[in-house]
Design goal:
The protein is an alpha/beta fold and 525 residues long. Among the domains are: 51-246, Rossmann fold; 259-411, no CATH class. It has 16 helices and nine strands. A nine-stranded mixed beta sheet has the order 1-2-3-5-4-6-7-8-9, with helices on both faces. Helix 4 links the parallel strand 4 and strand 5. The chain is globular. The two termini are 35 Å apart.
Length: 525
């Protein structure tokens, strides 16, 4: 057993410390997409440990964590987390689960166990089941707190594990030591199973993990950010349907109304980071369902089509992918409208605050062919979503014909209502996962008969004039947001820092404040 050397953070700003993989690599050989397959009769039991007892990676003492947090130039994280109370034992779990075709595979997860003499660090403790945001790094391991791309792991340690909460955080099938050759990105069924299986493995591991003074206290909380916000909600839905106990849940900044979200992107509201997200999404659905396209060139431009099904996740950095011409950095679509009816959507110009984000999603060297974009738009016109471009019924498209839109409707979360207390947290200025998506879920639940109770929606960017239990966090968020703009102006920005705020918003600004709100929400349950 070793003491974990946390990342050196002295002198770092909050932006450097907390940069998350936004809502976000691999061999280059094109893989055929096999048809969906039933699990083998001899498949291992889902949720069973591959290694029992699990591997202990390290311990982090409360004192060491406090010193690291207090040494940071920007004290925001320390102010949000409070002084660490517990030491943390960090384990790496490997467990059996399934892939997008229900095939047997393995995945891995972090298990963070609080320890110490304080009563908050031992005995029956609550569990937080956490889903992380998008990463293209195939080797990503949220249990490795020394990883330079693992700010989420540090946030979980500071805000939850060091305060006496057991943390279970899957890496997802297809990452780290998983035997799956792809990732089932935004596949509600597979990713919720992955989360449930990680929880089962962690509960099995706890008594044998060498930390017998800390046990499962029976209170389960589910949360996650960006991609993980979607996964958290899908998991809450799946566990509720299975009759499993969820104490409360708090999805953050996720594309819950998924089909409406993607309709908006194809309709010209191209989100930041779109080439990476849509490569993961389309290839993942092709691997899972086998019918999104006959060949990659039906969707992707010729220069990208070869090998794109197996491109992500990868061990190559995003900057290298861009430099090698494997993916465009910004341009999802051609700047030439696919037909006259889409000219005003190439790019979209409303809402005006995000127009500059939409514009960079169009350009030469684009990822998606104009022919496929036109097919998508034609299907959206004939079978419109009730939530976008204007809200009518608020429901998913009734009868889409395009296989991709069918897959999106299949994975849209506008088909259930929570019975456990639920918090939806995000920011209305988000350029990557648009706020209207959270509003669609809110409206969907409020129009059920009877209306769903116990749902709280928190816009971290609502301003400083709203008085409620989260007002202090919103004030701190506004201060951090303004600091980004002021810093950009000091560096010569001529747009009042607006571009810098947009760049930092989803990946850096919102996550720590929403996660602090989540802890406050869970503590109240």
């Amino acid at each position: 057993m070793k003491t974990l050397p946390l990342p050196a953070i002295a002198g770092a700003t909050l932006l450097a410390l907390l940069t998350l993989a936004a809502c976000g690599g691999g061999n280059d050989k094109t893989a055929d997409s096999p048809a969906p397959a039933a699990p083998a009769a001899t498949a291992p039991v889902r949720g069973s440990l591959v290694q029992d007892p699990p591997q202990m990676l390290a311990t982090v003492t409360a004192g060491d964590l406090k010193l690291q947090l207090a040494a940071a130039a920007d004290q925001t994280l320390f102010g949000l987390s409070g002084s660490p109370v517990c030491d943390i034992a960090i384990f790496h779990l490997s467990y059996n689960t399934v892939g997008g075709r229900n095939e047997a595979t393995t995945a891995s997860a972090a298990l963070m166990v609080p320890m110490g003499t304080d009563a908050r660090c031992r005995g029956g403790r609550p569990i937080v089941l956490y889903a992380h945001g998008t990463t293209t790094n195939k080797s990503f391991d949220i249990a490795d707190l020394s990883g330079s791309d693992n700010a989420e792991g540090l946030l979980l340690a500071a805000l939850f594990a060091a305060q006496g909460t057991i943390v279970v955080a899957p890496n997802y099938a297809g990452y780290d030591t998983s035997t799956l050759g792809y990732t089932a990105y935004l596949n509600a069924d597979q990713q919720s199973k992955d989360m449930i299986d990680a929880l089962a493995a962690a509960r099995t591991a706890l008594p044998s993990a060498g930390q017998r003074l800390t046990t499962d206290g029976g209170r389960l909380f589910i949360t996650g950010y960006s991609q993980g916000g979607y996964v958290a909600m899908a998991t809450q839905r799946a566990m509720q349907a299975a009759g499993m106990t969820v104490t409360a849940a708090a999805p953050m900044s996720g594309p819950y109304a998924l089909s409406a979200f993607v309709d908006a992107v194809f309709g010209g509201q191209v989100n930041g980071g779109a080439p990476v997200y849509f490569t993961l999404l389309i290839a993942g659905y092709q691997k899972s369902y086998g019918d999104v396209y006959g060949s990659p060139a039906e969707v992707f431009e010729t220069q990208y089509a070869n090998g794109i099904e197996s491109l992500l996740p990868t061990t190559v950095s995003r900057s290298e992918l861009y430099a090698l011409g494997r993916l465009p950095q910004y341009a999802l679509f051609s700047p030439i409208p696919p037909d006259a009816g889409s000219a005003a959507q190439t790019p979209a110009t409303q809402p005006a605050a995000l127009a500059r984000v939409f514009a960079v999603g169009f350009g030469s060297g684009n990822l998606i062919t104009n022919a496929f974009r036109l097919s998508y738009l034609q299907d959206a016109r004939s079978a419109p979503d009730g939530g976008w471009p204007t809200q009518t019924t608020g429901m998913v498209a009734a009868n889409p014909q395009l296989p991709l839109r069918k897959a999106l409707v299949r994975n849209d979360l506008r088909n259930w209502s929570p019975t456990a207390p639920t918090l939806l947290c995000g920011g209305s200025g988000d350029p990557q996962v648009f706020w209207f998506n959270t509003q669609l879920m809110q409206n969907y639940w409020s129009t059920r008969t009877p209306a769903v109770s116990g749902v709280t929606v928190l816009d971290m960017d609502a301003g400083t004039g709203v008085s409620d239990s989260y007002a202090s966090l919103r004030d701190k968020f506004a201060t951090a947001r303004n600091a980004v703009a002021i810093g950009a102006i000091a560096q010569g920005a001529t747009d009042g820092g607006a571009s810098a705020v947009l760049e930092a918003y989803h990946s850096t600004l919102v996550p720590p404040f929403c996660l602090a709100a989540v802890r406050q929400f869970f503590d109240a349950q």
